[in-house]
Amino acid sequence: MTDLNHYIGGDLGVSPTGDLLLASDTIEGQQRVLRRLLTNPGEYIWHTDYGAGLPQEVGQVTDARRIRGVVRSQIFNEDIVLRSPDPTILVTAIPNGVSARIQYVDSTTKKPVALNFDINR
């Protein structure tokens, strides 16, 4: 099943003719991984255990090792992320938040995918 083109925190993707855009393959996978990592457990009312809760890290003392472990365990819940080679996950503290740099191999294309994002207030 194809998803609507939507990055968490943004608007739905719209074509030049006004139709809603669909996401597939790598883009769909990136959107799903981001949505999982940036959703706090309990916020998705139909699946209360869904989400890594990374936004909850803002304002906390950054424990990069623990956050890396959370990210690693959560991204493997998405079929798009291959387990081998092991994803590279870099977590660093930034002013008022956390920066994440993730590289994994897409299970559909077998190509590396880079996903970089910051979470701050």
Summary, kept brief:
The protein is of the alpha+beta class and 121 residues long.
Total number of helical segments?
A: 2
Poorly predicted regions: none
- End-to-end distance, in Å? 34 Å
Spell out the helices and strands N to C. Answer: EEHHEEE
Main sheet strand line-up: 3-4-5
User: Could you tell me the strand content as a percent range?
Assistant: 15-25%
Mean of residue pLDDT values: 85
Shape: globular
Helical fraction: 10-25%
Number of E-type strands? 5
Main sheet attributes: strand count, strand direction, barrel closure: 3 strands, antiparallel
Structural class: alpha+beta
Radius of gyration, CA atoms, in whole angstroms: 15 Å
How would you describe the overall organization of this protein?
With about 120 residues, this protein is of the alpha+beta class. The chain contains two helices and five strands; from the N terminus they run E-E-H-H-E-E-E. It has helices at about 25-40, 65-75, and strands at about 5, 20-25, 90-95, 95-105, 110-120. The strands form two sheets. Strands 3-4-5 form a three-stranded antiparallel β-sheet, covered by helices on one side. A two-stranded antiparallel ribbon has the order 1-2. It starts with a strand and ends with a strand. The mean pLDDT is about 85.
